[in-house]
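Service request form, structural biology core

Requester: graduate student, group of Dr. S.
Request type: structure prediction, single chain
Budget code: on file
Notes: please return the result as structure tokens.

Sequence provided:
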Amino acid sequence: MQMNENISNYAVHLKPADARRTNEFVGRMLRVFAVLGALALLALSAGFALLLGVGHWLVKEDSLEKASAIAVLSGNFPARALEAASLFRNGFAGEIWLTHPGPQSDALTQMGIHYPGEADFNYQVLRRQGVPAKAIHVLGAPVINTSDELEVISSALLQKQGASVIIVTNKAHTRRVHELWNRFDSARGKIIVHGIANDDFQPSAWWTRTGDTHQVVHEIFGMINVWAGLPMQSALHSREALAQNELQQSPKLVPVAKISSSNSDD
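Core staff response, request fulfilled:
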């Protein structure tokens, strides 16, 4: 009761100027909170739109057309090789190029032991799919990442003046392939970037599945590396060395006990 009387007495004795300043202060605070609320809502909306759109943004495929060769990027074995074989059978190109991921162990080389790699397995898949041995070529310079692969492909393409090549990869990887080519290799020839037809990547709901989430995160970091000028590069060899690459003969069939099923592009 005493408190109510004190508040009433204070209100009675409050000067009009003080009341006006109080009202102005409250009004300013309300406006500040309204602006902050609007900015928070805008940020949430932008984040949600980004979440929905990034999956579609990563997919950048070209319309298929006939080319001089079909190049299979390493990873996602054997889906990419199977897609290349399908394109070959449908007459889109007369050659298939395989990249050679990683150098062979020096110790094994000295002992005369061939350690089968992904190129060997892709070769076997292509042969089982009816691709003639003479149509399969391995780009012999070892590679570690997508930038290396595109460099050896562009070097091979440079030898075929005016040629074009179909690049077979995963759908979520297609934009980074385009970005790398446009920045570093576009003067050497034309590429047609093609995602495998049976790719189950879901661009509209990529965050709902672990595999799709890993792909998106991996590609976003890869794109940041490209935009930054490739500060993270392969340590195998320089681009100048890769420019000397030649088309190599197809590898011999090597019986193996296990075949890797890695999905990695790098």
